[in-house]
Specification:
Length: 507
């Protein structure tokens, strides 16, 4: 007779068949036998979304875990909608624009249009819901390349979206407008619909993002065909210092980071006092930073969930502890993290010394980032838990942040975004802005599989010190305040709370 473990293994093989190429499975109850389904659910490998529908899960997930749903939501929507409506469905024009703009944040309510005369609201996981309703769908349908979701084409979504989208989702709207090179497809749709109001709105929108020729072409063409078009600016003048339109923007991520930076920097400048510049006594500054190591290491590692004692920190600092493959015990991971933090801290101090001697702080960060990261995980390489190649370059797979509604950029987008971050840092005169926004954008991008929070705090402090501000240690007791402020910035594009939090620690 097969053991319980053998039976579970058989069920897992059935689940594996249903997984997509990303390793996620969306399962309708009819796709598994009742025995396999019950076994997988009871052992935590499947989580019910709605009656008869499940997603693959980790059995070690805890109450409040968000990663399972964040990772599977759009795959679930695709399969559920395809099963219910065939191919005759798509996201709303507004949510289609968010996908075109590189924003796949899961909204509180996902809106699906279908040509069937039916409507309903379906409650999903994590306080989200799906609303499907009868309405004209996209023509032709397009497919999001990441999840296979049915969406509107970029030009049709811009024509059909609500005027409120330009105000409520200003950054996404600007990104999408800047991705339009040829205005002809939009013009064809405007003429077919005969809508002077939509033409007036889009002309004003294109002019607001610097595409003057596109705006003039819309107005001129519509008037030549007898339409009275009176241009309006749907953004209400909120431009965030958007660069003038010069060529089609192929990367929505580049434009998103630029817009976020321009929108957020005034809030940071408002919060921080005027910087004093490089410290007059660089040795005194370095000594102060080095003395802060113990407190900083304990809090920074504790924020990441490591259990680190004062005794372990002292051993690492004195050099009396050195991991190797024979040291494997219950505390190995904590010890490796502590040793890596010590090595990375020394690398950061070396980078700061270069900054204090007059080198550009943003440029030093760009050249030294890989050194910091390799130092942070050097003990893991020594212990044989990572190979040297694992510490080279950026991540090659998707990551998710537990407890957050923000999904970091895809691995491909990371390679587009990091050069933009370096450019923004090097073009920013304010050390406070470089520190606060550099930290935020680093974790927003999440370029590595692990260590992003620790490196982001190193980046924050390196830039602050270059402007004469004090080194900031985020206390573990305020971990939730810290994470909440970052979440607000990531999801709502509001940085004030995070800037105020950091400034409150800068004493």
């Amino acid at each position: 007779m097969a053991s319980l473990q053998e039976k579970l293994a058989l069920s897992l093989k059935e689940l594996q068949i249903l997984q997509n190429e990303d390793g996620f499975a969306v399962v309708q109850s009819t796709e598994l036998t009742r025995t396999h389904l019950q076994r997988l659910v009871s052992n935590g490998f499947l989580q019910e979304v709605i009656k008869g529908w499940y997603i693959s899960a980790r059995p070690d997930r805890f109450v409040g875990d968000t990663t399972t749903w964040n990772a599977s939501c759009w795959f679930f929507i695709r399969k559920y909608a395809n099963k219910r409506f065939g191919t005759k469905w798509c996201l709303s024009p507004e949510q289609s624009l968010s996908f075109h703009g590189g924003d796949d944040l899961i909204p509180s309510q996902i809106l699906i249009r279908t040509d069937r005369k039916t409507s309903n609201v379906v409650e999903l996981l994590q306080n989200t819901s799906l609303m499907y309703y009868h309405a004209k769908i996209a023509n032709p349908l397009q497919f999001d390349h990441r999840y296979g979701i049915n969406i509107y084409s970029l030009d049709e979504a811009l024509v059909e979206c609500s005027p409120h989208y330009f105000q409520n989702c200003s950054i996404n709207a600007r990104i999408c407008l800047s991705m339009i090179g040829d205005i002809s497809d939009i013009l064809k749709r405007l003429l077919s619909s005969g809508s002077s109001t939509k033409a007036a709105r889009l002309a004003g929108a294109f002019r607001a993002v610097g595409n003057v020729s596109g705006a003039d072409e819309i107005i001129g063409t519509m008037k030549r065909y007898g339409y009275d078009v009176r241009e309006t600016n749907p953004f209400l003048g909120d431009d965030y210092g958007l660069p003038s339109f010069s060529a089609i923007c192929h990367s929505p991520y580049r434009m998103r980071l630029q817009l976020l930076w321009n929108k957020m920097r005034p809030s940071v400048i408002k919060v921080f006092p005027k910087e004093s510049g490089l410290p007059k006594n660089s040795n005194e500054c370095i000594n102060k930073i080095e003395k802060q190591y113990k407190t900083d290491a304990y809090n920074s590692l504790s924020i990441e969930g490591f259990q680190v004692s004062d005794e372990l920190i002292k051993k690492v600092q004195s050099g009396s502890w050195n991991p190797n493959a024979n040291d494997i015990d219950a505390g190995l991971i904590n010890a490796l993290a502590a040793k890596g933090y010590w090595l990375a801290y020394q690398s950061v101090v070396s980078s700061i010394k270069r900054t204090l001697s007059g080198e550009d702080a943003a440029g030093v960060f760009e050249t030294d980032l890989s050194i910091w990261y390799q130092a942070l995980f050097a003990p893991h390489v020594s212990a044989g838990l990572l190979s040297p190649s694992d510490t080279i370059g950026y991540r090659s797979s998707q990551v998710y942040i537990n407890g957050s509604h923000h999904t970091p950029l895809s691995q491909g987008a990371v390679r587009e975004a990091m050069p933009v971050l370096f450019e923004l840092l090097k073009g920013e005169p304010s050390a406070a802005v470089r520190g606060v926004l550099g930290h935020f954008m680093f974790v927003y991008i999440h370029p590595y599989m692990d260590g992003n929070g620790r490196i982001a705090r190193f980046l924050l402090n390196m830039q602050l010190v270059s402007g004469g501000y004090s080194w900031v240690t985020v206390p573990v007791e305020r971990r939730q305040d810290y994470l909440n402020a970052l979440e607000r910035a990531s999801v709502d594009s509001e940085i004030s709370e995070f800037a105020e939090f950091i400034q409150s620690l800068n004493v």
